[in-house]
Amino acid sequence: xxxxxxxxxxxxxxxxxxxxxxxxxxxxxxxxxxxxxxxxxxxxxxxxxxxxxxxxxxxxxxxxxxxxxxxxxxxxxxxxxxxxxxxxxxxxxxxxxxxxxxxxxxxxxxxxxxxxxxxxxxxxxxxxxxxxxxxxxxxxxxxxxxxxxxxxxxxxxxxxxxxxxxxxxxxxxxxxxxxxxxxxxxxxxxxxxxxxxxxxxxxxxxxxxxxxxxxxxxxxxxxxxxxxxxxxxxxxxxxxxxxxxxxxxxxxxxxxxxxxxxxxxxxxxxxxxxxxxxxxxxxxxxxxxxxxxxxxxxxxxxxx
Length: 304
Prior knowledge:
13 strands
């Protein structure tokens, strides 16, 4: 049975595609246009983390050839550049205050934000990485979910989610809770894939964002509508990229064209270019910044 749309509640959908990389059929809501996985044949939801499910997800990602662990491990310097970019984007809207990151992993972004003057906290459902944030870096990070944290209303000046919203069981419930815990005028920043991209239209089931634990695929319109429905004013919607090494770029290219990727990798190695930096904006990731509107009451407008 197709799950109701998380944005409007409708069950009338169009089936877009099915592929091995997703946990069920990809559908588009007739009423509001939200694209999501309509049935969960397997459940790797962000809110449900245990060792068996984490291991099963990791094994599935490896089996599908979506990640080369050695290449990913070498990307630490470029990930640091990515977190610096994210902090600079956030500082355009808010420069200090109490900041919560949902899905903070081991806390690399939080460490940068703390050095920049924010009072930081984090939530991370994966026990090993959240423990590392606490034990290795001394960060205030809770193991669990936003619902389990039960923060008082008006607790934070800013909340950020980087590539988290697409993993959730109900993005609507999450942004509703974020609205409650943000102070009036507080800032929300979300980075997430957008299906409003030429790459999905060209590649279909081979699009890089179609992976086992992605369940929701927003467009600027559907994400803005979601935020406005629960009481946010959208400040900016912007396509963003990420810094990466030429090595990682060519590793990703090999997944789509093995011959070309291998040839260019060999050339990059011979020329000593593997560790040069690329900053690519492919147009399939967006940053949405929003502000909590004060003294607003928003009804649930979803269909029954």
